[in-house]
Fold this protein.
Amino acid sequence: MFLSNDMIFSLTKKYGTPLYVYSEQILRERCREMKNLLPNKSFKVNYSAKANTNLELLKIIKEEGLDVDAMSPGEIYIEQLAGFESKQIFFISNNISAEEMRFAIDRDILISVDSLSQLEMYGQINSGGKIAVRFNPGKGAGHHEKVITAGKKTKFGVQKEQIPQVKDIIRKYNLKLVGINQHIGSLFLDWRDYIDGVCSFIEIAKEFPDLSFIDIGGGFGVPYKPDESRLDLNRLGKELDIVLKGFLEEYPNKDIIFKIEPGRYIVAECGVLLGSINSVKNSFGTTYVGTDIGFNVLARPVMYDSYHEMEIVKRNTGNDDKNNNDTRLTATIVGNICESGDILARDREIKAADVGDKLVIFNAGAYGYVMSSNYNCRLRPAEVLIDLNGEARLIRKRDTLESLAQNFPT
Ligand code: LLP
């Protein structure tokens, strides 16, 4: 953990709670681990910015030499603010409008389309242009059915049986297919799942002999539960290298670039979410620890039944006896949103909490702030970065009451 108990209390005093706090050091380490996944020079890491689009984090990721994916014009806009050039941005689109396509085309940003009808739409508005196509390799993986993005039950990608139609549309509009991409799903901890997906995918790539790149997707997991082991990146890298070298032996364009697009792996572990304990009560035999972290602040537990490690930090920390009192109990940890489903953790064994204590939620850097909302007219939290010197810096202000009203016509 990169924050001491004293820092937790001083940061929450200064910036309030809920508060996302990120470690620059861990962020940089994760970027480097991904960059070193393959020894190959023709290997490129695109950070999938949907996991966390804080401007300052994006600037660090850029400094580390990663490129980025975008899922929307909004992500493109923020990425350009962070200094990414057009050629460093890959727009992996899904069901976008012609206007959204034009937004990227006008900025010279490559788009990947994921249906025949979107390919047709692209051809109509940018005949002769460069394009990428997302394929569904037929089998997905992920921590929850909602995040499995390949296989028979997902809206994403073009089926390989439709390759002839893809070729027809490309010919019809004189398009140049420069790359193909896939993403099988999010959060796998077993390297075999990824390798399986890559093996099916390269069969599709062989159908297109002059691609400049193939993008084999993201989804690299991090251990959220204490008993989960880390993804074996060493092994994954070695196996991947074998598969891709085998592919290259048969593939005509020897200069082809291999891309991956990790989101979670880059940012999950560099972020914690800090909250306050506002109430503790017993109701019909259940102990409820009431916090200010509703599902408007961290949606993952409610949306996917996701597990996050959490810890109570006792007030008056330091040498205080209270903090050393390790009494533990089983409690249900809840937020402050007016819905009974607003549960961060059910029946969790945790240090006995009192009003005024703090709650730390670990691995909150990915799909945390980006999925937050103003539900119940709650203010989205502030974000703070702990830089390499250990100094804290505000990198996003908390919403204000006025910001809740800013879009109403005056
Ligand atoms: N590329 C594409 C096309 C994707 O759809 C995704 C994530 C990624 C890359 C990055 O995946 P990652 O490396 O982060 O697993 N909100 C969910 C995760 C949804 C991910 C969907 N796609 C969660 O909190 O677990």
